[in-house]
Amino acid sequence: MTAVWTEPSVTCRQENPDNHLSVWVGLDGIAGSPAESPVQVGVHATCRGELYPQHQAFWGVISAGVDTREQPIPMVVCAGDRTSASVVRSAADPANYILTIDNLFRPGQRQTLTKRAPAARSESAEIIVERPTVFTLDSTWPKTVNVPFSYVTVDGAPLSGYETLPIQGRQNDTGMVYSPSPVTTDSGGYSNFTVSSHPG
Length: 200
Known about the structure:
By secondary structure, this protein is an all-beta fold. 0% of the residues lie in helices and 46% in strands. The strands form 2 sheets. Strands 1, 7, 8, 9, 11, 12, 13, 14 and 15 form a 9-stranded antiparallel sheet that branches. Strands 2, 3, 4, 5, 6 and 10 form a 6-stranded antiparallel sheet that branches.
């Protein structure tokens, strides 16, 4: 699974102290059961009481119920940066996954890691924009979200070759809905779509 996106801007300030937003790609995260073993890499934007958001690249693995949580990757990512991320299952050892994240706007800000997830089956691929609960159960979505994705492929092929499952999120207190636009495929064979917010 590979995708490129523009890292979104998150509003903090005093009136939005709990805004969090994670953007990531991964494999094997659709089961929604104890057998689920997602392998993921992406960027988490968080306010955590700051006036300005902090953007942190991260990786995470759940394998056989053991959760690494979001682990930081040492690289610079800022709002507006074009970011590429991929998760690839190793052909030599299917328990190994190669995670790559690259800030296309900042030379030298690229990291590749190999992580083990013996329980992962790689039966699904995900591109996720979410309000994570890694810091607090009370975290909120930013009211305005616009994350365009491009150069999306699974095993080198566009999403049109696979069954897709668009899922939307909702912030109940504001009524805002967060959902993906229809997927298009360009002449280069890459899929494109945008996750954005709108009133429910």
